[in-house]
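Notes from the 1:1 (GR / supervisor)

We went over the backlog. Supervisor wanted to see one worked example end to end before approving the batch request, so GR pasted a single chain during the call. The sequence is below; no edits were made to it. Supervisor asked that the structure be written out right there so they could see what the output format looks like.
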Amino acid sequence: MKFFAPFKIAGRALRRNKMRSLLTMLGIIIGVGSVIASVSITTGATKQVEDKVASLGQNVVTVFSGNFTSGGARGGWGSAPTLTVEDANSIKKEVGNVVAVSPEVRDREQILANGLNWNTQVQGEAPDYSQIRDWDVSSGGMFTDGDVRSLAKVAVVGQTVVDQLFPNVDPIGETMIIRNIPFKIVGVLAPKGFNLFGQDQDDVVLIPYTSHMRRITKRIFINSIMVQAASKETILQVQADINALLLERHKSAEQDFTVRNQLELMQMATATTRIMSVLLGAIASVSLIVGGIGIMNIMLVSVTERTREIGIRMAVGARGTDILIQFLIEAVTLSVFGGMVGIALGMITAKVIAYTTGWPTVTPFAWIGIACVSSAAIGIISGFYPAWKASRLDPIEALRYE
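Structure output shown during the call:
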């Protein structure tokens, strides 16, 4: 019974001043609510960016051609043709922990089909492309290695191309014209939507890279090479091995290619959301600090108002420790209840924002725990000095206080 006595006394004190208690909790409610809402928004934004990066493929390392220096002129990746199909084949054969490779050739072309025309991205790829990009074929199938070897005139199209050229028509088996060359549609890619850079991923036509290079563009170099590592843990090693292999193969005075991995893209893409998360968290933390100062202020006022009450309690046997615990319990109660209401308010705010704006929001459970612990800590820190001051009152002087 003695254990629960301070809690009962603290509860009675808080109930006697309901409005003051509510206003005192308001700072904590706003602070915790702001933290939870801001974390939910930034976590949702980060997850959306990560999903966009993941839509580009799984464990992907990409090799771009090509840096160059000529007559004082210099250029970065993509400014000179330096990669070949042989480079891609060497990576597949000689680099460990590589499970799929696709040489890439890209051009925009005006294509004709079904009495309609559409300008789209025509990509020459290997059959491994769908595995690297984790991109299913919703109907039909992907072209094969045999199609690559035979320079087959076959194509797999994205959903946007289907919508533009084959409205209300099954495109499988239909023919499209690319530079006066007929290509038979053998598959339709599952919709992927827009990528991280705002490009419609479904606005694409895939054909064997050999057909693109020999039949359409008559080129000998490729734009890039997509490589899939065996796991996330092996990406950096695969990147280093590809870099070493191509340096040996090209034997150029300087590196005439660029190797990038998906982890680097993820870090660059999430940098903005991390900064936003820190800024919003800092702003919300100020609200928490203000709430803690508010609790300390009210508790100090409470000590002054209840000086005589404290003197009577100490006169009938209450120790300084008992007074200290009572006032700490009051401060922590205000903080914890304010924190719980703030958590609920923050989650509701995040849901309302998600509903009204369409932004994804995710509330990490870890942050709910952090908010609870923070609320209790604020109560202890802000309530300690007033509680200590109350426990140090002289009983005789307290009884004389008017």
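Supervisor's comment: The longest strand covers residues 98-113.
Batch request approved.
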